[in-house]
Design goal:
The radius of gyration is 24 Å and the shape is elongated. It has 3 domains: 75 residues, no CATH class; 75 residues, no CATH class; 116 residues, VSR Endonuclease (Endonuclease, Chain A, 3-Layer(aba) Sandwich), CATH 3.40.960.10. By secondary structure, the chain is of the alpha+beta class. The chain is built from 11 helices and 14 strands. The chain starts with a strand and ends in a 5-residue tail after the last helix.
Amino acid sequence: MSDDKISTTALAKLLEVPVQQLFGTLKDYDWIRKVSDGWVLTPKGEFEGGEYRTSKRYGRYIVWPVSLEQHAMLRALEDNKMLSAAALGQPHSLSGRAVNRILAELGWQKRESHGWMLSPRGQQQGGVQMENRQSDMLYVLWPEAVTDNGVLEQRLREAGAASENSAAGDLFAESEGFVSIDGHQHSSRELQQICQWLYLAGVLHATNRQLPVEESLKADFFLPLNQVFIDFWAADATPTELKAQMRKAELYKKQGWNAIELHPEDIAQLDDIMPRQFHKFGVKFS
């Protein structure tokens, strides 16, 4: 590739806008057109210097003159910059997944089988529905002005502060007495963090639930829709608590019940561990 031609993705980085916003703008101005297997140039796009390049890895793709960075139409994108969930979370050290769940809790979007769907409430905030051109996954972009929304900023700030003050690094608000944001009370911060992960992932759950046996044994969490028990094995468990945990593990195996064991080292990786565990038991989540 010649030095003065860059891909659409590289141009988006140069303009500091989401790549899908740039694709949408180029489409709206009739520089490119969507076809079944990707994008093609229109006469307007060719006039503006667009060309095709081919690589073994990416196949055929479009490149543009670097000088387009100064094009009036593209410079105007800076005044209408749209932010992804990941970009919203960056100032608070939050992942895009964490922010998407916060946006869902606010009712601005909802989880669908192919990604995140913008809600009417989210439209009022200026959200724009987008679709990944390669995976067909849905997602939402947000106007830069949404960062001025007091409610959203408070949620992001609380989640970010929790990330700094806990090993979990995601969505766990500081709460005196270990009360999770869904109102459940817990005996430890780790249980609070697990509960808040379940709540923000949209998973129906009970806490401190008696097992269906005559013995006085309770699971830390119970998912009624999929009949899954979840227990946290605390590092500082007393001999009595450890004995109860071992008895529960024995019952789960003997009865063939669905069970998930979590340990202290797992708390920092719930976003990776829980989806894998849930997949085994058919648990749906956001």
